[in-house]
Design a protein that fits this description.
This protein has 196 residues and is α/β, with parallel strands linked by helices. It folds into two domains: 108 residues, Ribosome hibernation promotion factor-like (Double Stranded RNA Binding Domain, 2-Layer Sandwich), CATH 3.30.160.100; 58 residues, SHC Adaptor Protein (2-Layer Sandwich), CATH 3.30.505. Helices cover 26% and strands 36% of the residues. The protein is built from five helices and ten strands, in the order E-E-H-E-E-E-H-H-H-E-E-H-E-E-E. The strands form two sheets. The protein has a five-stranded mixed sheet with strand order 1-2-3-4-5.
Length: 196
């Protein structure tokens, strides 16, 4: 495991620093793979002014070449995972997945990053979000249940960015621990806790 800071040029030719931790499991991290990961995965930094340390895990299991990427951005985690028969293809697909997540949640991410840390010019070619994307997420079921403060919409966005089926958080208004989850019908559920 090696942590390394690299310089990435944005569209205006300005250099930014990005920190990478690239680990391999059953695969040697060659200089060529490291350079490819940093170049391709580093593209995600064009959307944000500040990005935390980008964590990349490359795994080979039988004939599957898996890539897992986690990118922390001001308390929000972007996460992507892909597996193919070729490591370079998996790297290409995982950055496409991360960029799709950013584009899909563009409006909500812009609201989350009110203080200008989101690079709106990187979204210039993306059409404005449809009315459906701006709608509140439908919470179709609530349960009572006996972690970082946020509201339910931000928790659902975070769950979707992580590509998980549930997400545990502390409600910013009530300070209660809550869980949002994706139901089998692709709607959303909310589990709220009660103090004893």
């Amino acid at each position: 495991m090696v942590s390394k800071h690299i310089s990435i040029k944005d569209r205006k030719g300005m250099c930014r620093m990005a920190a990478f931790t690239i680990r391999g499991k059953n695969v040697e991290i060659t200089p060529a793979i490291r350079e490819y990961v940093e170049k391709r995965i580093g593209k995600v930094t064009k959307y944000f002014d500040e990005v935390g340390e980008i964590s990349v895990l490359l795994t080979v299991s039988k004939d599957r070449h898996m890539v897992e990427v986690t990118v922390p951005v001001q308390g929000v985690l972007l996460r992507g995972e892909e597996a193919t028969m070729d490591m370079y293809t998996s790297i290409d697909l995982v950055i496409e997945k991360l960029e799709r997540q950013i584009h899909k949640h563009k409006t909500k991410i812009q609201r989350r990053f009110k203080r200008g840390s989101l690079k709106t010019e990187a979204f210039a070619a993306i059409p404005q979000a449809s009315v459906e994307e701006d709608d509140e997420y439908p919470v179709v079921k609530k349960k009572k249940f006996t972690v970082r403060p946020m509201d339910v919409q931000e928790a659902i966005m975070q769950m979707n960015l992580l590509n998980h089926d549930f997400f545990v958080y502390r409600d910013a208004e009530t300070d209660e621990v809550c869980v949002v989850y994706r139901r089998s019908d692709n709607k959303y559920g909310l589990i709220e806790s009660e103090k004893v």
